Amino acid sequence: MEKLSVDEVKHIAHLARIYLTDEEVETYRVSLAKLFQSMDEIHAVKGYNEDILIAPWTEEAALREDQVGEMLTQEEVLQNAPSKNGKFIEVPVMLSE
Amino acid sequence: MTKYEATIGIEVHVEVKTNSKFFSASENRYGKSANMATTVVDLGYPGTLPTINQEVINQGIRASHLLHCTLTKKMHFDRKNYFYPDNPKNYQITQNRTPIGRNGFLEVETDTGLERIDIEEMHLEEDTCKSAHKGRVSLLDFNRGGVPLIEIVTKPCIHTKEAAVLYLEKLRETLFYGDISDCKIEEGSMRCDANVSIAPVGSKTLGTKCEIKNIGSIRNVGVAIEKEIARQEALLEKGETLEEQTRRFDDQLGDTVLMRVKETGNDYRYFPEPDIPYILLEEKEIQSALETLPMLPDERRKLYLARGIQKINVEKLLANRTLSDYMNTFIETDLDFVIASNLLLGDISSYLNKNFMQLEETKLTPEKLLDLVAKIKSGELSSKNVKDILEDVLEKDTTIEAIMKEKNIQNITDVSFVEELIQKVLLENPASVQDYQDGKDRAVKYLMGQVMKEAKGSINPKIANEKLLELLQKTR
Amino acid sequence: MSKYLDLGITEIHKLYQEKRLTPTQLLDEVFARLEKNKELNCFITLRKEEAYQEALKLEQEEVKGLLWGIPIAIKDNIVTKNVRTTCASKMLENFIPIYDATVIEKIQAAGMIMIGKTNMDEFAMGSTSETSYFKAPKNPWKTTHITGGSSGGSAAAVASRIVPLALGSDTGGSIRQPASYTGLVGMKPTYGRVSRYGLVAFASSLDQIGPMTRTVYENALLLNVLAGHDVKDLTSSSREVEDYTSLIGKEIQGLKIGIPAYLVSEIVSPEVKTVFNHVVEILKAHGNTVELVDIDYLKQAVPLYQIIAMGEASSNLARFDGIRYGYRTAKEGTVDELYERTRSEGFGEEVKRRIMVGSSLLSSQKAKLYYDKALSIRDDMQASFLKAFEKYDLLLAPTTTTAAYPLGESLQDPLKSFMDDVLVIPANMAGLPALNLPAGFNQEHLPIGVQIIGAPFEEKKIYQLASFLEQELSLDLEGGKCND
After folding, report:
1. How far apart are CA C83 and CA C94, in angstroms?
2. Are B349 and B458 found together in one domain?
3. Least packed by Cβ within 10 Å: which of B209, B373, C157, C276?
């Protein structure tokens, strides 16, 4: 059974913003590889049509009229936020993007 | 710059004018108290789903038309995945594979003639929320989250800062006059990024590019590009290699500063948005969206020039959308646009500025303007008269006639009466008549003054002047 | 104590009309049974006080439709205003939503009484309900065994006769598979038939909410309430809602029924095959045509599903970041640390694994190879199904490859939970309605189901066939009944 490299697992974990201990990295090296191996089965599929199915929609999108509806109160916005500051939700300082 | 040629691409985001947001029915308005214009959809609450605001699609159709793009008639949306606190779902709904418009252009007038700036694509997406930094924390206000945006991307086809600035001015004017966006850079409803690279003249490949983000004014885009070209040139001259960077323009410094060196390509993990089915644009919908497009700047220019307004006043009118829109309500009338524009840009504008008023707050009705201009044209009102009555015209409900009566203005246009009056003045000033006959032209000015004085300003100076010269000539 | 909960809904309704029973009395039974059967671990959150208040309020009104005053259990990934909604995750352990899912508004309007929120696999990721942060529910037929998943708590609550009705959600079989393991009727409606607004998304292009009930008729009744267009969900269909009970009891004859060949291949265990073959015999005996049909790419359905479901999930679950709601780490430093620690501590292992794989699948080097290709093959697979429906009225297949198995068996293998769903995944991929019907038992007397798959919006026809078979099979399904 092939394993993913430590760097591969760390890269993937960062993409998903998940912190992993070294021990966890080791476990995921195996289990992620297993999943990839399973999905690699589709590489064998040939001769398919290029058209894509994004979702089994049955209709085109129905558009909404441009009207303002009911909105949340400030209290509701802040209600579930683990960290707030006055009228705002608070996060650690954002470095410029 | 002789050895190197610059290549510039411009990306612009504008906030789209609508009542409600793109994917929710929250109000789309700048300046509301923090976190007072949101729904669970804008906050990315679990289980919420986007809806689509019809007007955003219509605005996209209009913008695509204005920028001469090919409209995409079957669209879907895509998710751009990246983690950032101002991005509530940690993905942004945008259009990656099927931008609403492609392959457009704008033409700008440069010193060397018309230059065409190619637009690669324009697409619809949602805005992020606003963050303010306060010491070791950042504060989030979700009012802006989900506001509709149009992003317009040029091809890397611009080579001078002048062309870049002209393009941005043209773009702003077009989108502003198209009612797509209010394009206020200071309020963030228009944001400009520039990609700049340089390469030796004649080189077939482009140099390493730097992105300059969020430049605070169109003028500064020009400055930023200039500084960036110089910086890159200096590095290349020193034999250094350039790295791909993201920079920002620092207003205080008047220069670009490094934000970060690009990582090996941001991986946005785009994929088609499954929550929004295809949007199909039918010819009927496209036409009805375009029907409401206001008259565009270039069309206005043509119209005003055709009605005799001088170029300088044409540009002044275009710089003042309210006045231009007002003028356009008279297109079907025989209003003298020259007199009207002088009046609107001159005395009326001064009055409005002095009193901090808007045109629609005055008592100037279309009928009154038509009457006023006609009376100026016919000579019934002199420019001095206009100054005397303007306040009343703008402040009172009464007609021009009534105001004239009240101010005791009777502009005499009866030619025989004017003649009589001039004859009288000539008789009373034989010395000046003699001066005229001796070739001293300033005598005419003096006599004219006497005529106007005699008439107490109530005759048309143009007619009087003409008559005076005619009669003087006869005395020779 | 009389056992009103053992009665059918029509009988309860009659008693309500005759004023011989009140919703409060029925609730007494519900909560008594719950108390005695805690070890089944069906519920994460109960709503006892509010349920009684609602019952009292209902008692002031006239008895309305058939579902008036009927207790219902809601899967805990359906958002309920002011009622904790956890998705069986530490991430949402204390999350109190500020809005209701559309289906919640609908069941309330119909006068049903929400009892509580049921246990499930964390964020619906799993096929045994064992990935729940609140520990797995137990199969009422045999408490050492799995309920299946991810709607395991809903399945256990109905199978044990604690509540008559439950809502589940089905992304890759999560209604039908636990229904099969617990002897219930479970319907995954056509994609777009029931609003997803307020269903915490796992894989948006696959998810559907559906009813889990004891009988076919009750299932159709509940779908009547759930189905319909919702302006809040662009993917919901504006097609008119039919009365899904209208063909129930109508005679079945001369139907053309297809059996997707791969779904009865060697991947299916002999015990399931025996039950399935018995059903086929009944159909044939009543003058219906039953034949094998080839549907393209069924063999690749699991990897296709893995790619699409994990890809979408990685994006759908990105919003759980400790900022606006939900769990937030105590170890926040930078923004990235806030994200990484919160998500590392808040998500369980299965969820982490799936969103990591999903994130990787969508990354620029892999997207074309995996995701885009999967979307293309998915298109072909749906086309192949639709073509089959030109010839066949309905498709028939087993629901699961085996009966329920002991708890703990699947935990070591990251692929097992996907393989359990090999027979149920195709309907989600193609957006088709599909229903599990209890069809027999294995030697341990654990239930085994069959699956009826219809063309889009053919739920009515599915119910017709299902009720016919239900009557013909006439199974005793009381084996899951809990202690009184």
Report:
1. 10
2. no
3. B209
Pick from B76, B260, B267, B269 the residue to mutate for testing the C interface (most C CBs within 10 Å).
Answer: B269
Return the amino acid letter for A9.
Answer: V
pLDDT in tens, B461-476: 777 888 888 888 887 6
Owning domain of residue B18: 4-280
The answer to whether residues B266 and B320 belong to one domain is no
Q: In whole angstroms, how far apart are CA B172 and each of A78, B99, B365, C425?
A: 37, 20, 31, 51
Q: Please tell me whether residues B353 and B231 are part of one structural domain.
A: no
Task: Tell whether B427 and B402 lie within a shared domain.
Answer: no
Q: A64 at the C interface (CB within 8 A)?
A: yes
Domain ranges of chain C: 4-254+392-480
| pLDDT bucket at C183, cuts 50 / 70 / 90 | very high
User: Could you tell me the CATH number of the domain that includes residue A29?
Assistant: 1.10.20
pLDDT tens string B346-381: 999 999 999 999 988 999 999 999 999 998 888 788
CATH number of C4-254+392-480: 3.90.1300.10
CB of C166 closer than 8 Å to CB of C184 = no
A90 contacts in chain B (CB < 8 Å): 137-140
**CATH number of the domain where residue B452 is located:** 1.10.10.410
Interchain contact, C359 vs A61, CB within 8 Å = no
Under an 8 A CB cutoff, do A95 and C363 touch? Answer: no
Q: Which residue of A lies nearest to B56 if distances are taken between CA atoms?
A: A66
Q: Domain check: are B207 and B70 in the same one? A: yes
Q: Is position A36 within any domain?
A: yes
Assign B1 a pLDDT band (cuts: 50, 70, 90).
very low
Interface of B with C (CB under 8 A): 40, 43-52, 79, 81, 83-85, 88-91, 140, 265, 267, 269-272, 274-277
| Active-site residue (options: C132, C150, C151, C180) | C150
Q: How many domains does chain B have?
A: 3
Residue B290 lies in a domain: no
pLDDT at B413: 62
Are B421 and B454 within one domain? Answer: yes
First and final C-alpha spacing in chain A: 40
Report the C-alpha gap between C344 and C348 in whole angstroms: 8
Q: Does A58 reside within a domain?
A: no
A23 is in which domain, residue-wise? 6-40
> Is C238 tagged catalytic?
no
User: Environment class of residue C89 by beta-carbon count within 10 Å: exposed (0-12), middle (13-18) or buried (19+)?
Assistant: buried
DSSP letter for each residue of C82-135: TB---TTSGGGTT---SS--HHHHHHHHTT-EEEEEE--SGGG--SSSTT-TT-
Closest partner CB to A91 (pick from C96, C338, C369): C338
Whole-model pTM: value is: 0.92
Phi, psi of C433 (to 5 degrees): -75, 140
- Are B400 and B423 contained in the same domain? no
Query: Would residue A95 count as lying in a domain?
Result: no
Residue B97 CA, distance from chain mean position? 31
C352–A contact, CB cutoff 8 A: yes
Residue A56 lies in a domain: no
**Whether residues B388 and B424 fall in one domain:** no
List chains touching C (3+ CB pairs under 8 A).
Answer: A, B
* Inter-chain CB proximity B47 and C201 less than 8 Å: yes
As for the ipTM of the complex, it is 0.97
Active site includes C150? yes
Residue C375 has pLDDT above 80, yes or no: yes
CA C246, CA B318: separation in Å to the nearest integer? 67
pLDDT band at B412 (very low <50, low <70, confident <90, very high): low
